[in-house]
Design brief:
256 residues; Rossmann fold; seven-stranded mixed sheet; four-stranded antiparallel sheet; 11 strands; globular; binds S-adenosylmethionine
Length: 256
């Protein structure tokens, strides 16, 4: 596990806050089946999916997208950093009688060669520096088979810059509070996200912080080219329409 991953999830609050926050309190952040299903016509067309594809879902969480790929007869492998999310993904998969391979791992460290025809990220494409992004894209490029496709959603930097900082308190169970905050930093070109959990029963508190960079669409294009992707398209988020500068984010399809 490299330092970037440690920074993301393996701090002392680590799984404790992040995973329980998502699994118990903010489960709605893992996309609902109706939301996932609604966008499949877009994925199928934009990525020219075929039943021969071998798909890697990177940052699969509890496997919402992997399950929909499997239901539709695609071969999919789900990868995530969190053993807790993967345990939940496997429980649901067994309940639904599906067959999906889930692997525990940091996508920043993937070492596959010519292995997947599609690498798919939904709400899980994070990088902390331009160098980190080029390194990730280069690993993805290597992992893809010839004509393989990469898919991810990316925020629009200029819209992010306009968003005011946000902070929300929630009582996740009796006497246990979580403060979640997010703030965009112009000087670092990215957002700092943090969770502070305070347990009034045990008098303990736990904290998690991580930084996610957000490059402009033009800089992102430069990084794609540097990593070897010459053929790519920026769509409106999950729609077969071109991205416009006023959109809050975009879907990227890049071909090897
Ligand atoms: C907001 S969740 C989205 C999960 C899923 N794609 C969905 O939309 O339901 C982001 C996921 O990315 C995973 N993740 C973040 N960084 C990762 C990394 N470097 N390697 C593998 N998984 C990562 C997190 O553990 C988390 O499950």
């Amino acid at each position: 596990m490299n330092n970037l991953a440690c920074e993301f999830l393996r701090t002392d609050f680590g799984h404790e806050i992040y995973d329980s926050w998502y699994l118990e309190h903010a489960r709605h952040n893992f996309e609902a089946p109706e939301f996932v299903e609604k966008h499949f016509p877009f994925y199928e067309k934009a990525l020219l999916l075929s039943k021969d594809d071998r798909i890697l879902e990177a940052g699969c969480g509890i496997g919402s997208y992997s399950r929909e790929f499997a239901r539709r007869g695609y071969h999919v492998v789900g990868m995530d950093l969190s053993p807790n999310f993967l345990a939940e993904a496997k429980n649901i998969m067994h309940r639904e009688n599906l067959e999906i391979e889930f692997i525990l791992g940091d996508y920043n460290e993937m070492r596959f060669e010519d292995k997947f025809s599609v690498i798919f990220f939904e709400g899980s494409f994070f990088y902390r520096s331009k160098e980190g992004l080029v390194s990730l894209l280069s690993r993805i490029h290597k992992a893809l088979t010839p004509n393989g496709r990469l898919y991810f959603v990316h925020a629009n930097q200029s819209i992010k810059k306009q968003r005011p900082p946000m902070a929300n308190w929630s009582e996740i169970k009796k006497n246990v509070f979580v403060l979640q905050s997010q703030e965009y930093s112009e000087s670092d070109d990215g957002s700092r996200c943090s969770w502070l959990k305070i347990d009034l029963e045990t008098q303990k508190h736990y904290r998690c912080d991580y930084f996610v960079k957000c490059l402009s669409p033009d800089k992102l294009k430069d990084c794609l080219v540097e990593a070897g992707f010459m053929d790519f398209h920026f769509y409106k988020k999950r729609r077969l329409v071109d991205f416009q500068p006023e959109d809050d984010g975009f879907s990227v399809v890049a071909k090897k």
